[in-house]
Design brief:
- Helices cover about 55% and strands about 0% of the residues.
- The chain is mostly helical and about 220 residues long.
- It has two domains: about 90 residues, Endonuclease Iii, domain 2, CATH 1.10.1670.40; about 110 residues, Hypothetical protein, domain 2 (Endonuclease III, domain 1, Orthogonal Bundle).
- The longest helix has 15 residues.
Length: about 220
């Protein structure tokens, strides 16, 4: 679905020169989104540390309000001296301890599946950085509890890929509906037509769409 971001730019959106190039591109090729970019200005973007840690955090945050998820994540980390445990240590932890910090049985099983794949070498998280976008998404999509949306967020926030377009994200859909004065939320096909002029900087466009709808004080984990 996506061009390989590494082939397009050789760099990530955490690189300020890449970000500025993306801003110029969006302003030049999409007057509507260009106005948003001009109004908001440059965003400070930093990659999340740790491929495995980021995925564990994203699983814990799923379907929870930011404050509740953060509290559970902190209690979870406190079981391991304030850090996310390595896969082997997680697998050795009794489920009752994990449930005591607020993790649901389903999320416990999701993190277990991730850890087992890492331990048995069927998943190479570090190797994802060498794969084209779509191949990386496919590798992540096989993990229980990690669907396409979470995989796309991983590509943006952990790998820094430049051209990820999460067409199924409700926040992006609502922002596009408002900015482009659509009568209803865009279908996948309509969204991809809107985004034709965003390539190869769809990730940057996505971040501006989110920011255009953001309320002060909002905080959420992808």
């Amino acid at each position: 679905m996506y061009p390989d971001a590494e082939r397009v730019t050789g760099l990530s959106i955490a690189n300020k020169s890449v970000w500025r190039a993306g801003m110029r591109h969006l302003k030049k090729h999409d007057p509507v989104l260009g106005k948003v970019v001009g109004r908001i200005g440059s965003l400070d973007f930093e990659l999340e540390d740790g491929h495995y840690e980021a995925l564990v955090g994203s699983i814990i945050y799923q379907q929870l309000a930011g404050a509740a998820a953060k509290a559970i994540l902190n209690r979870f980390k406190n079981l391991y001296n304030g850090r996310i445990p390595d896969p082997e240590r997680y697998l050795a932890t009794e489920e009752s301890k994990l449930r005591s910090v607020g993790l649901s049985p389903q999320k416990i099983s999701y993190i277990r599946d991730l850890c087992e794949r890492i331990v048995n070498d069927s998943l190479d998280l570090e190797g994802l950085s060498r794969l084209p976008d779509e191949e990386a998404v496919e590798q992540l999509d096989v993990i229980k509890g990690v669907g396409r949306w979470t995989a796309e967020m991983f590509l943006i926030f952990v790998l820094g890929r430049t051209d990820v377009l999460p067409v199924d994200d409700l926040g992006v859909q609502k922002a596009a509906k408002r900015l482009y004065h659509l009568r209803k939320l865009p279908t996948r096909e309509r969204f991809e037509r809107l985004a034709r002029n965003w390539h190869p900087y769809c990730s940057i466009a996505t971040l501006y769409l989110w920011r255009s709808s953001e309320k002060p004080g909002n905080s959420a984990k992808w």
